[in-house]
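To whoever is on call:

I kicked off a structure prediction for a single chain this morning and the downstream step that reads the tokens threw a length-mismatch warning. I double-checked the sequence; it's 172 residues and nothing unusual in it as far as I can see. Pasting both halves so you can look.
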Amino acid sequence: LAFGAEAWAAYITEVAPFVRRVTEWSFGVGLHYQMPTPFMTVRAFGGGLDLAYAVQAAASLAAAALVWRAWRPGRATPGQRIGLLLLLAPLATPYAHSYDMVSAAVGIVLLMPRPEAAWLSARLARFALLVAWLWPGLAFLFGLTVMPGLGAIILATAAAAALAAQARAAPR
């Protein structure tokens, strides 16, 4: 609404096809290393486009199911619901960049385990969430030199650890 229909039309006709071309280029373009998506993780490990799209579709559905489950009454606090949504958003799309993880960083803060969480699960969750918090910066080091494609694995691990810590802290 703020920029008019022309902006949306340009997005559909210009930006969307460009994004598709970028994601489908042979893996190794500089920005591929900074993309924390399941699609790029598969590409980084040598998978083809069909496998990358299949894994991305499964990850998108899993992220949507986890968020839907969290938003059901009595499943999570409002902060946990929003945190999970923000943390999983980069996993739900084939095209996200490290700078898109700003919202995930907010989600990480909202998902930090409460003091009443079980000690070990809270420690593991805090560590996993810390790595995810630092990942946009670490991606430049690890993504380019050590192991590309870790972004989606880092985010999924952080979400799993946070969910496990929350489940252990929930009243029985």
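Update from on-call: the warning came from a stale cache, not from the record. Cleared it. Sanity check on the structure: The two ends are 47 Å apart (CA to CA).
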